[in-house]
Amino acid sequence: MNADNVNNIIKVLNSGKDFYQHAIDKVDNSGLVMVFRSMVDARNNALIKLQPFAQMTDGEREAGDSWVVKAREAYADLRAALSKDPDHTYIEQLEEVEDKTLVELKTALNKTSEPLYAAVLKEVHSDIKLCHDRMLNLQKITA
Question: Where is the DUF2383 domain (predicted)?
Fold first, then answer.
C-alpha cells in the first residue's frame, strides 16, 4: 500500500465533497440538491473506509484537498456566472470530478498488492462508479 495513493484519493474525495456542498448552494433545482447531497454522503462513506489506511501509512488522518478539484470548482463558478444554464455547468464540472476520482482509484488499485486495501478500493470504486454514472446521465439529460 502506497501512502501517496491513499492520500491522493482522500484529497480528491475531500475536495469533491466540498465541491458538491458548494454546488448545493448554487443550483436552483431541488432535485439536483438531493442528488448532490447523495454524492456528499457517498464521499463521506468512502472517506470512512479509506481513512484507516491513511492512518496506517502516515500515522494520521488525511485532511488535505486536491488543488485540481479546487481549481475546477472555481472554474465552474466562473462558467456558471456566464451561463444561461448554471445548473448544467455544475453538473458538467462535477462529472469531471467523478472522472478524476475514478482515475485515482484505478491508479491505486493497479499499484497495490495489499489484499484488504485492494478489497476496500474495489468497494469504493464501485460506489464512486455509481456516482459517476449518475452524474454522466444527468449531464446527458440536461445537455
Answer: 4-111
